[in-house]
Design goal:
The structure is a single chain. Strand 1 and strand 2 form a beta hairpin. 31% of the residues lie in helices and 29% in strands. It contains three helices and eight strands; from the N terminus they run H-E-E-E-H-E-H-E-E-E-E. It is globular and about 35 Å long. It has one domain. Strands 3-4-8-7-6-5 form a six-stranded antiparallel sheet, with helices on both faces. Strands 1-2 form a two-stranded antiparallel sheet. With 137 residues, the protein is an alpha+beta fold. Keywords: Signal.
Length: 137
């Protein structure tokens, strides 16, 4: 994958992470007011570590048809106390994802078909994980 494509992919995933901050700014809500769901064991068949918490799912249909069939891109942001390397190992072991070189301490993991993109970044005493599942997964 070219540097430009990696940069665009990382930029898109960073935008997902900033949705929480933007939603709080627009609505005047605090972080505790934003929708946070209980983390399940998987998101679109992508396993989550047992200790995943503060899950924030986002879904944006690409078309009216996609909205009707629930066949749309979706993303999930969550926190885990695992180190970034432990999270990377978890996903490489469970999904055979390819790790890209870190950019600004963020590591991009990609599936062979580019339908799964996961960004792992350090967050206080653990990691923030951003998952993007593309259409038709």
């Amino acid at each position: 994958m070219s540097f430009f494509c990696r940069a665009v992919t990382l930029s898109a995933l960073f935008a997902v992470s900033s949705l929480t901050a933007h939603a709080a700014e627009v609505t005047g809500a605090t972080a505790t007011d934003l929708p946070v769901s209980v983390c399940k064991t998987a998101f679109y068949d992508i396993p989550l570590p047992e200790d995943a918490s503060l899950c924030q799912p986002f879904s944006t249909p690409l078309s009216a048809r996609a909205a009707q069939t629930a066949d749309s891109p979706a993303s999930l942001v969550y926190y885990t106390p695992l180190s970034t390397q432990a999270v990377i190992d978890f996903y490489q072991r469970n999904l055979s994802l390819n790790a890209q070189s870190p950019v600004n301490q963020r590591t991009l993991l990609l599936s062979e078909d580019n339908l799964i993109r996961i960004v792992v970044s350090p967050d206080k005493s653990g990691s923030q994980v951003d998952i993007l599942v593309s259409q038709n997964r």
